[in-house]
Design a protein that fits this description.
Chain lengths: 485, 79
């Protein structure tokens, strides 16, 4: 992965390849290579040997991406954390992933506790993990990059945004290099990009998610330049007008589409776009129409964390399809479920052989997605697995949220599901001895407190509290609503 | 109403979110989607010339909560 990147950065040594809005600078290929070397040098001195687990807990930035490359180049393994999680969730994930040291934004770690830079954590227990602030994690001299075998684990990613029962996807050097290798073998970099010219690519999707890592890495491999943005700066960076391509989830595209005709600056920014890559969740047809009628090329990607990025997304746009399959993967359907095999498929979940055995059999990954394949194009038809996919592309496990709800003493039964793109919960509260209105208010309060321990995207927004039991199946389980597209 | 709450409410009005009060819950009463909340943070960063970490949202439910957290950040910056 790093060797391929090194070649590309040398080919683009004098061209700006990353815009670093946070530090107000543009980095050329040679500068990025130098910075990766300095990160690598720091981690080589921090750990005299290799194979250590280094967590990254920070908001999107050029430094985040460069440090990811530097950690891998130093012979260690990066663990990417959702920077909006509660301290409890982060501590749990640190234990599960054997993270030894946490690289974090300056001011995020205070007195042994993860903080928001404001307080000292309000009495939380001190953490025994070492923390390194981003501004410190650079060596004086650039160090040589370690050679990584294809089957070496280099990156751990949590498969859903919440902690608790998140599975940890372990990705190898080979997994992460597969698409880049295809680009280098089959294409001639920017000369054969879809728009026929180099692009400046706006990437606001989170870097702790495979979509952020995959797209930043592979856009660099294409010879394109990056504007590393984030959810907070989406509007500002889209309105800035420098991007010719953007990688968006449907909720981000919806925000831009809703405002582009009313906001002059944003309208101008959208007009500079030649291509939009949409991923993470199904794209409503009106959003596709918004782009196509403006002559903006639309590319739909489908992929999973478990496949280290995209499975399909090639070829011209076809309504309802998620592009053509990448040629280095095999795909088949079993009872409508999509099965996949290829060099980008993970070896398994970290320290979780039972869950791994559920999804990986004879080298085939059981995606849990229902699909059709027609003329090489992939059509996703629904989900077999019980996951809510938000329109920002994040996965939320209903069971994890239900588990948290059951900690509320007045909740007897609950069901979490997706209602019009938002997370909803049906709640049944039994028992006597309390006025019904008082009971409802107490439940609402308890859910509000629970929500505050979650990032905004994972909060239960719609609450239906009732005095009747929830509908059951024949075997007595609470009946779940299934989502089909 | 304190000065910071007033600023937030003005920014919300510019985002076409009317009728916000200091007691309004951002996701509940005002029904802000997560991207709108992040946009609000970015606008307040620019107005107050202070970086507002996204983690602040773990402590925030209402307009007043957000005002209080931003005020602390501004005061910390000036210390």
């Amino acid at each position: 992965m790093i060797k391929i990147l090194e070649s590309v950065l040398r080919e683009n040594e004098d061209r700006p390849v990353i815009q670093d809005a946070r530090r107000g600078r543009e980095l050329t290929g040679s500068q990025v290579l130098l910075e990766i070397g300095r990160s690598c040098g720091f981690w080589r001195r921090f750990f005299p040997d290799s194979g250590h687990h280094v967590g990254i807990l920070a908001e999107n930035s050029a430094d985040w991406l460069i440090q990811l490359f530097g950690i891998i180049a130093s012979g260690n393994l990066a663990v990417a954390y959702h920077s909006g999680l509660s301290e409890d969730e982060i501590r749990h994930q640190m234990r599960c992933s054997n993270t030894e040291v946490m690289l974090c934004d300056d001011g995020m770690y205070f007195n042994g506790m993860i903080s928001d830079g404001i307080s000292s954590g309000d009495g939380a227990e001190p953490c025994d993990i070492r923390f390194v602030e981003m501004s410190e994690a650079w060596g004086g001299d650039a160090a040589e990059f370690a050679f990584r075998e294809d089957d070496e684990d280099v990156l751990l990613l949590f498969s859903s945004g919440t902690g608790g029962r998140s599975k940890i996807v372990s990705l190898t050097n080979g997994n992460l290099s597969a698409f880049a290798q295809y680009l280098r073998d089959a294409w001639k970099g920017f000369e054969t990009s879809k728009t026929g010219t180099r692009d400046t690519v706006l990437v606001p999707v989170p870097l702790y998610h495979i979509s952020g890592i995959f797209n930043c890495y592979n856009e660099l491999i294409r010879g394109n330049s990056l504007i590393i943005s984030g959810a907070k700066y989406l509007f500002r960076d889209a309105a800035g007008g420098g991007a010719t391509k953007a990688v968006l989830v449907p909720s981000m595209l919806r925000l831009l589409a809703d405002r582009a005709d009313r906001d002059e600056r944003l309208g101008r920014g959208v007009r500079t776009l030649r291509e939009v890559v949409c991923l993470g969740a199904a794209l409503p047809s009106e959003l596709a129409e918004f782009l196509l009628k403006r002559g903006i090329r639309l590319t739909i990607y489908y992929g999973l964390t478990e496949t280290a990025g995209i499975v399909s997304g090639l070829g011209d746009y076809r309504e309802g399809a998620s592009g053509q399959l990448v040629p280095y993967m095999e795909a088949k359907l079993l009872d409508g479920e999509l099965l996949l095999r290829g060099p980008n498929v993970m070896k398994g979940y970290y320290k979780n052989p039972q869950e791994t055995a559920q999804v990986l059999q004879d080298g085939w990954l059981y995606t849990g997605d229902l699909a059709e394949i027609r003329e090489g194009y992939l059509y996703i038809r629904g989900r077999k697995k019980n996951i809510i996919i938000l329109d920002n592309g994040e996965n939320v496990s209903p069971e994890e949220l239900e588990e948290k709800l059951y900690a509320c003493p007045l909740i007897t039964e609950c069901l979490v599901w997706e209602e019009e793109g938002q997370i909803a919960a049906n709640i049944y509260s039994a028992g006597k001895g309390m006025d019904w209105e008082e009971r409802r208010k107490q439940i609402e309060n308890d859910v509000r407190k629970m929500n505050q321990s979650l990032p905004p995207t994972h909060r239960i927004v719609r609450l239906h509290i009732r005095q009747e039991e929830l509908e059951k199946t024949a075997s007595g389980k609470i009946k779940r609503k299934r989502t089909l597209t | 109403m304190d000065h910071m709450s007033e600023k937030i409410i003005k920014v919300l009005k510019d985002m076409d979110i009317e009728d916000a009060t200091p007691e309004s819950s951002l996701m509940g009463d005002l029904e802000l989607e997560s991207l709108q909340i992040y946009e609000l943070l970015a606008e307040m960063e620019a107005l107050c010339s202070v970086r507002i970490p996204e983690r602040v949202l773990l402590k925030v439910d209402t307009v007043q909560d957000l005002a209080d957290e931003i005020t602390k950040l501004v005061e910390k910056k000036h210390d």
